[in-house]
Please model this.
Amino acid sequence: MRATALASAAIIALASHASAETIKIDVGPNGQFAFQPNNIKAKVGDVLSFNFHPLNHSVVMGDFANPCAPAKTGGFFSGFMPVASGVGSQTFEVTVNNTDPIFFYCSQNKFSHCISGMSGVVNEPSSGDTLDAYQAAAKSVKSASNPATVFGGRLVANAEATSSATTTAAPAATTTSCTTGNKAPNGNGYKRDTCSGAGSVQASIGIVAASLGMALLLS
Ligand SMILES: [Cu+2]
Model:
């Protein structure tokens, strides 16, 4: 009996591993402030693939107890993904490590995305901490927030974007470097205009420092 149970467990583990799926979640499709689907069943090893639609959305893992705020421990943050048309040049992919409920939301405050219901859940409890309860509580939140930096997932070239986006292919590398550092805190607007700006600021500081060094040497 015990051996059979162990064997079954092993088979189930193998089977679930072998059948790990990528679950596509559209972020803001058709101009809606919503994730689609927003109530997902996932098993360990599955990958959540967030596919960004126009406007400037993000996805952040939160805790049920604090709607529209980042999870106190662990979690993930995609950064803001400005998309003019079609879908974003990169998806954000998060591997599911356990079957605990995962609440997630969009932290865009322009038009209050999370507060107006832009959130979702993976492995929703059957009662109590439900997505309905999360979204109801979100309505009384003043503003959404997100971590300072992108973490907890991978930015991956979006195959869906390559066919329609002739102009986004080249800037993709710039986007990648921005998301790891400078992009995140600047997400309240609809433009990602600070990435190159931040670089040039650093460059100017470098020049100032060099000039100071020169001045000191010369004095
Ligand atoms: Cu949003």
Observations:
- Residues 90 and 158 are 5 Å apart (CA to CA).
